[in-house]
Design goal:
alpha/beta, 13 helices, 9 strands, O-antigen biosynthesis glycosyltransferase WbnJ, glycosyltransferase
């Protein structure tokens, strides 16, 4: 029996992204794993061809095709049900894992007796060029508990954890746009030990579509609701979360929030490239774009001082 189960769901990622993602797992320095790939788009003949090509080369790949589109949450839960490993390693079909990712995360988790960990991501664009790098992530358990009141700080594509945690929490819940954040909060409220490895383990691809997703404001509202309940030491009710979002969501706020997100990513790139005058200009524009996004930035700030 293998020790690690890598779980990845695919849908309509570009060929080059999918190949880079698969190869980054197959080329890991740690070898004792199964690679569960679930295609959530049965009509995607290109993905079928590509994944079957790799399956014929490397028998560690276990390839499954959903009969119909069921969404990421259900696909991940399906992968968890199929997994035979002691540990679960998450992977997205357009990211790139650093070659020693599994080896280093497994060692860090075991040595420190953690239940679930994440790590640092380097943000890249469609061409694989660096946009900006996250410099540091919180590792102290108690600080993480405080910081989680403001933002998700265990990046979902970097997760590595014990399968028993996923089993005991019955996998992901259908909390729209926040299934990973919801899982993290439930894990902490159930007493599991969570941390981050403070090294870059993943290249996270930010495409133009991911930066400008129309549901970003909706995601922000869901996060605001579930963190409020977390601060009250409660697990959020899914129906009440949906009701909250429906009450506060509107087109005008969502549009301003989306524009602010685009400007925020420009500001981060300004800092990375040390374009300080441009940073001042872009930061000024960002300030007057969306009140809700300023709250999101405040949440980032609170994460920083609490971690």
């Amino acid at each position: 029996m293998c020790l690690v189960s890598v779980i990845m769901s695919t849908y309509k990622e570009e060929e080059i992204f999918l190949r880079q993602a698969i190869e980054s797992i197959l080329d890991q320095t740690y070898k004792d794993f199964e690679y569960i790939i679930i295609l959530d788009n049965p009509d995607n003949d290109l993905h079928i061809k590509i994944i079957e090509e790799y399956t014929n080369i490397d028998k560690r790949i276990k390839f499954y095709i959903n009969k119909k589109n069921i969404g990421l949450t259900a696909s991940l839960n399906k992968g968890l049900g199929l997994a035979k490993g002691i540990y679960i390693c998450r992977m997205d079909a357009d990211d790139i894992s650093i070659s020693n990712r599994i080896e280093n995360q497994k060692k860090y988790l075991e040595e420190n007796k953690y239940d679930l960990i994440g790590g640092i991501s380097q943000m890249i664009d469609e061409n694989g060029e660096s946009i900006y790098s996250i410099k540091k992530v919180p590792t102290d358990i108690n600080k993480i508990k405080k910081a989680l009141r403001y933002n998700q700080i265990i990046s979902h594509p970097t997760w590595f954890g014990k399968k028993e945690v996923f089993d005991k929490l019955n996998g992901y819940r259908n909390m729209p746009l926040c299934e990973d954040y919801d899982f993290t909060l439930r894990a902490v409220l159930n007493g599991y030990k969570i941390s981050n490895i403070n090294e870059t383990i993943l290249k996270y691809r930010m495409t133009s579509s991911s930066i400008s997703r129309s549901n970003l404001y909706e995601q922000y509202l869901f996060a605001r609701f579930i963190t409020k309940k977390y601060s009250e030491k409660e697990i959020a009710d899914i129906d009440k979360a949906k009701e909250y979002v429906n009450n506060y969501n509107n087109y005008s706020r969502a549009k301003r929030y989306l524009k602010a997100n685009e400007r925020f990513n420009i500001v981060l790139k300004d800092i990375e490239e040390k374009k300080y005058l441009k940073f001042i200009k872009d930061g000024f524009l960002l300030t007057f774009t969306s009140k809700s996004y300023l709250n999101k930035i405040y949440r980032f700030f609170m994460v920083t001082i609490n971690s």
